[in-house]
Write a structure and sequence with these properties.
Elements (H helix, E strand, L loop, with lengths): L4 H11 L10 H13 L3 E6 L6 E7 L7 E6 L18 E3 L2 E3 L3 H13 L1 H6 L6 E6 L9 H11 L5 E4 L8 E4 L1 E10 L3 E2 L9 H21 L13 E9 L5 E2 L2 E10 L6 H18 L7 E10 L9 H10 L5 E3 L5 H6 L4 E3 L14 E3 H12 L2 H4 L1
Parallel strand pairs: 3-6, 3-7, 7-16, 8-15
Antiparallel strand pairs: 1-2, 2-6, 4-5, 5-17, 9-13, 9-14, 10-12, 11-13
Helix pairs in contact: 1-3, 3-10, 6-7
Length: 384
Amino acid sequence: MTELASQIDWIRRLVAFDTSSGQSNLALIDAVQQHLDGLGARCQRVPSPDGSKANLYAVIGPDAPGGIVLSGHSDVVPVTGQAWSSDPWTLREADGKLYGRGTCDMKGFCATAISLVPEFVAAKLARPLILAFSYDEEIGCLGAPAMIARMRETVPPPAAVIVGEPTMMRAVNGHKGSSQFRTTVSGINAHSSETELGVSAVEIAARLVNSIAETRAANRRSARPDSPFSPPYSSLSANMIRGGTQQNIIAGECSFSWEIRLLPGEDIASVLEPFDALCRAVEAEMRLVGPEAAIRTERLSAVPPFAPADEGAALALVRDLIGSNSASVVSYASEAGQFQEAGFSAVICGPGSIEHAHKADEFVEIDQIAQCARFIRRLMPSLQ
């Protein structure tokens, strides 16, 4: 395992930082930037609006077009409520696997890229290798857009962006978009014995949630049988709801969170406009009882779809490196769609399986890290 000592050491170092989405990632960014600065990389931070988190991108090699971006997120999902067999923030090696929060999603990829920077520094590149690490990917890909915008301003156009989400080192060239919403219903309190005097926010919310389920069912019925996505249609789901204060009080407020997983090429307005029209119609009914009644929907995140591009430079590069002409699509969303939307040629390819992410005893197989290291090293000739 000595040939992977540097990769495993960096995975250990990154896993030790609790970068759960609710926590700051600055300690991790500090450590990575200090290391890359010491190797001569040109690092740029793009902080969050409140300064508690930061993106980091680093350019290794000359300021020239045609570089390659290796992109990953620094945040991980929380471990709260999960039954781990060992400390999730301490790397554990057993049975050919590396256990710890983020080993698979996606500190294994980030660590492998960081560990190989000295080799790219020594190679005297003609085109740059660019590492790009974001924050808050897990809660809606919130950090990457500002970093991508800054990169467009300061980095000569790269040839390809490789997003290292776990794909078992296979090429992925498409995923659905992901948009999250919160709808808040403000009803009218009254004693539950006097229903004519109140408007139950819980009941109104139930009507709206039911409409979301009905839209999903309609999409299912009209799904294209040749769609590569699973499920093969734009899906909607209401996933959290809370409201009311007491059994004998008509609920004055209720809110629910819901999402849309949009197929590439479909217009999200086709979903939002009918839902908004229903909300306005129901709100008008509510206000017959009291003008203070209201329904408000806020958009919490918006991750664009990643549209398959079979002729893209990034996909062609990865196909050549892994020796396979195949490519697939995935159900989860990623920052690849944001890079694509900004005009970059992107592809997803990284170590580990998404099936092992977000769970207790998350792991990545050591062989996957070895494959990832070989893959990144094979990028070098295209940059020289």
